[in-house]
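In the design runs reported in the main text, the only information available to the sequence generator was the tokenized backbone. The following block is the verbatim input for one such run; it is reproduced so that readers can re-run the procedure and compare outputs position by position.
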């Protein structure tokens, strides 16, 4: 229950930072933003975690670096896909990691998935489709985003295996450093690197680097010592719901009946797979709605415009 609550809190952080990132990437190239974001995440973890890294050993450091490079690969594939297809399509296809995660876990490790979890996965997928809407994007772009979704799923599945074995802080530091290195190389090759300027860009970088990356992925590492990859993927489908809620309260977006129904379907899907999530979801949504009294809209379910 505590692990699930922590993962849902991570999706809330990703949801609220989208408003900042949306403004920042209009002023600073997206790939460079991602690279600097993970550099800041690495710096934020360096002081508390650097002394613990030797305890990981070669295997632990290698595992963490592998997951970090998977994250970097996922973001690059997703960004390339987003350039070729619609935002709503990117959101929906990326959100399919809720389906791919249990399939990859089954294929690689023969992990058994209960009927309730499969029902939750199916309903959450329907909810993602309702939030995204029907889109007519590029097939090539959709395939790139689907590849990104598979990479995210693999990262979640492998984290379930590695997280219980290693110190969470040290593991996350190496993971962030590897992601930063990979993204720096790609951004440099793309000719995007430059010194960030302005309060809008730096504010978004600091918030996403420290809270949406360093803290969020540390929480994922910690939580996956206590919960399964499938439940992690289901919890992550709450990101579009929080994006919608914060889009309404902070950016004045609006959501129609279908989108509102998509939010509800995602939450019900999580409840089917994990009934104990009920009080967490009710408390989180009630807190986020505040005095507005209605759900907001979103144009970006899942991780459709990286970074969160």
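Verbatim output:
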């Amino acid at each position: 229950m505590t692990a699930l609550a922590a993962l849902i809190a991570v999706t809330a952080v990703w949801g609220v930072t989208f408003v900042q990132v949306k403004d920042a990437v209009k002023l600073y190239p997206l790939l460079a933003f991602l690279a600097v974001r993970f550099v800041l995440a690495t710096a934020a973890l360096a002081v508390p975690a650097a002394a613990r890294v030797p305890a990981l050993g070669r295997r632990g450091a290698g595992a963490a670096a592998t997951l970090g490079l998977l994250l970097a690969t996922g973001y690059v594939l997703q960004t390339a896909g987003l350039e070729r297809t619609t935002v709503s399509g990117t959101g929906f296809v990326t959100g399919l990691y809720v389906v791919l995660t249990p399939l990859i876990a089954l294929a690689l490790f023969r992990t058994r998935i209960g009927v309730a979890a499969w029902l939750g996965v199916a309903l959450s997928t329907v909810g993602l489709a309702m939030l995204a809407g029907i889109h007519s994007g590029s097939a090539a772009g959709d395939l790139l985003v689907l590849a990104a979704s598979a990479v995210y799923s693999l990262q979640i599945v492998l984290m379930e295996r590695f997280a219980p074995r290693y110190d969470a802080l040290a593991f996350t530091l190496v993971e962030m450093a590897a992601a930063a290195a990979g993204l720096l190389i790609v951004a440099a090759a793309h000719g995007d690197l430059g010194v960030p300027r302005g309060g809008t860009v730096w504010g978004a970088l600091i918030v996403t680097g420290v809270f949406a990356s360093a803290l969020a992925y540390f929480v994922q590492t910690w939580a996956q010592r206590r919960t399964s990859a499938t439940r992690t993927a289901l919890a992550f489908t709450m990101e579009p719901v929080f994006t919608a809620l914060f889009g309404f309260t902070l950016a004045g977006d609006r959501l129609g009946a279908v989108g509102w129904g998509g939010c509800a379907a995602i939450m019900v899907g999580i409840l089917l797979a994990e009934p104990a999530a009920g009080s967490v979801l009710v408390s989180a949504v009630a807190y986020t709605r505040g005095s507005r009294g209605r759900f907001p809209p979103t144009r970006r379910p899942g991780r459709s415009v990286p970074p969160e």
